[in-house]
Structure formats: C-alpha cells, structure tokens
Amino acid sequence: MSLLPPIEPCDPAPLRDRVVLVTGGAQGIGRGIAQAVLGAGGRLVIGDLDRDAGRACLSEWAVGERARFLPLDVAREPSVRGFVARALIAFGRIDGLVNNAGPASPEIATLSELPLADWRRFIDGHLTGTFLCSKHALPELRKAGGAIINIASSRVLQSEPHTEAYAAAKGGIVAFTHALAISEGPDVRVNAISPGWIATEGWRKPTARRAPKLLRRDHAQHPAGRVGQPPDIGALAVFLLSDAAGFITGQNIVVDGGMTRKMQYV
Ligand SMILES: NC(=O)c1ccc[n+]([C@@H]2O[C@H](COP(=O)([O-])OP(=O)(O)OC[C@H]3O[C@@H](n4cnc5c(N)ncnc54)[C@H](O)[C@@H]3O)[C@@H](O)[C@H]2O)c1
C-alpha cells in the first residue's frame, strides 16, 4: 500500500461558502479581489467609503445574497466595529479578511513641506486601518481557522522621490503582517501581497470607469511584458485564503511583473 496521496484534480471552488471581507472592495484592486473571491465560490462582504461604487458592484455582479456591501471607513474604529458586526449578522462567520483600502496615489510633497495631516492620512488609511480591521475580525477568524491578507506595495522595496508617508505606511504593514502571523498562528494565517503597477482605471465605478492609457513602453519595461491588472492580485489572494496555502504565513509576496527583480542602470 502506498503512503502517498492519490492525484487529485484542482478544486474549481477553493473558497466554497467561505465568508471573506474585502476593505476598499468596491473599486480597483479590491474589486478584482472581490470578484476572484466570488469566482472561487466564496461569500463576500465589501466595505468601502464610496457608497455609489459599492452599490454599483452589487447590481453589476447580480449574485444575490452571496455578496453584500457595507459602508466603511477603515481609519475610524466605530465604523470598523460596525462593519465587522454587520458582516457577522449577515453571514454568521468570517473566514477571511483582505485589508486593501487606503489612499492609493503615493506622491504628495517633499518631506520638509509635508503637512502632518497628510502624513497621518496615509498612516491612518493604510496602517491604522489594517490594525483596526484585523483587531475586530480576529475573534471570528480564530474560530474559523481563517486567514488575513494585507495589501502592501512594491514600494516597500523601492521608491520614487517624495513618497515617504506611503512607503512608511506600507513598510509598517509588512512588519505588522509577520508580527501578527507569529502571534496568531496556528489559528490564523497572515500574509501580505505587494502589488507593483496595477492599472485600475477600468475597475472603477461606472461613472469614473475608463480604459487605461498605457504606452507600449509601460508594458515593455516589465519583465512579464505587461502592466498588471486587478485579477493578477485576485488570483493570489484566493490562493492565500484557501487551504492550499496552509503552510504559508508571515510572508510578503511581490506581484509586480518582475519589476523589483530588474537591474536598472539608467
Ligand atoms: N494600483 C496600484 O498600482 C497599486 C500598487 C501597489 C499597491 N496598491 C495598493 O492597493 C490598494 C488598492 O489600491 P487601488 O489602486 O485599487 O486604489 P483605488 O483608489 O482604485 O481603490 C481603493 C478603494 O478603497 C476605498 N477606500 C479608500 N479609503 C478608504 C477608507 N478609509 N475606508 C474604506 N474604503 C476606502 C476607495 O473608495 C476605493 O473604492 C491600496 O492599498 C493601494 O495602496 C495599489
């Protein structure tokens, strides 16, 4: 008798009936992750500041009770507390949390001219939001043996000028990720995804949606031959949320078409 398992076909619905919360899930990368969760058989709660965008998702997806939208500001604890409580009322359990929300464009000002309020906007929107959502979802995630994914950035590894607040917030998220993975293992796995350039213009709410204006050289500079899209992040998020990733925790996985591995001399 062989001790080896038999060959099994891949599961077409690796998140079947799992309940996943995606912050900032109504647009951009978050929407890509949300759609990937639905495609993998999961049940979904998207939380977002933009109510129009959230409602548009539900009407465009038309998946009935399998997806909910709840208004959310990840930087405000009462809002986060209410979001998690209402998600629990809706579905009765929480198996996954994707901390994706936050102000996306990093360039603001030179550090000597950066107002404290702008610094705080980035730290609160990314790092504090990731802390608050994790804090309030953890009791349910522990019960379910669930997983957290934090969306960081390839900017934790490389920078353009005048991006200190964003880079610091995202670097904090990567450190928060391995710290929490050690605290919460083996009950809850915690990983980060660091996207590179992801074109999100086509993934906005209908009134703001447009085709991305990408040049040939934008694609060509990527070792993978193209700029990224939200489903590139969604695919990894589904894997990290699934049982197939049961031996992966505390990691930061870069999804950037190879850009951070490319030697640059000019
Ligand atoms: N697009 C990229 O190239 C890229 C690259 C690396 C990392 N990221 C990160 O990915 C995540 C998503 O970025 P994106 O480009 O899809 O952004 P986006 O602006 O297209 O979408 C962000 C969504 O989050 C919501 N949101 C913003 N602040 C919020 C808050 N305080 N509470 C709740 N919802 C909030 C917005 O309303 C929006 O729907 C961000 O964390 C961003 O830093 C993006």
Describe the overall structure.
The protein is α/β, with parallel strands linked by helices and 266 residues long. Helices cover 39% and strands 14% of the residues. The chain has helices at 28-39, 51-61, 77-91, 116-144, 164-184, 216-220, 230-241; strands spanning 19-23, 43-48, 67-71, 96-99, 147-151, 189-195, 252-255. The protein has a seven-stranded parallel beta sheet with strand order 3-2-1-4-5-6-7, with helices on both faces. It is globular. The mean pLDDT is 97. Nicotinamide-adenine-dinucleotide is lined by residues 23-24, 26-30, 48-50, 53, 72-75, 100-104, 125-126, 129, 151, 153, 195, 197-198, 200.
Summarize this entry quickly.
By secondary structure, the chain is α/β, with parallel strands linked by helices. It has helices at residues 28-39, 51-61, 77-91, 116-144, 164-184, 216-220, 230-241; strands at residues 19-23, 43-48, 67-71, 96-99, 147-151, 189-195, 252-255. The chain has seven helices and seven strands, in the order βαβαβαβαβαβααβ.
List keywords for this structure.
14% strand; single chain; 7-stranded parallel β-sheet; alpha/beta; 39% helix; 7 helices; Rossmann fold; 266 residues; 7 strands; binds nicotinamide-adenine-dinucleotide
